[in-house]
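ok so I'm stuck.
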Amino acid sequence: MLDFLSLIFIETFINGCVFMCIKMISKEDVIEINMVFDIGKIINEGSLDFALSSLKKTKDWLKQVSYLVRAVLINHVFEEGNKRTATALIMSVFENQKIAYDPRKVDEVVIEIIIKNINNINKIRSLIKNATR
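replied:
not stuck anymore, here's the structure
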């Protein structure tokens, strides 16, 4: 989907297991996603900075994506295009991980997070996971 997102994943080997996690995606990377849909104007920089720093707290890539999605959707990081940016982020991660997903379910996840104002990371993680096939 978005070529630069193919560069944000790394494999981590721990105790013989392979974990996929987001390499430290930069603020510029997130802005570039938004610029596909709008002009990339950040209005809540603190929330984006917090989400990016939270990526270091877990090796669970679904949880990492959840931090970014929450920042974009609930905390309205950008002036415009937050829903589209979050949707593109989720779909790009699934495509990069080669995980089958239902685009309609991804849309439903984004809408549910917004309508219900879901800010619990574990709940967002569960919703994102449920968009897979």
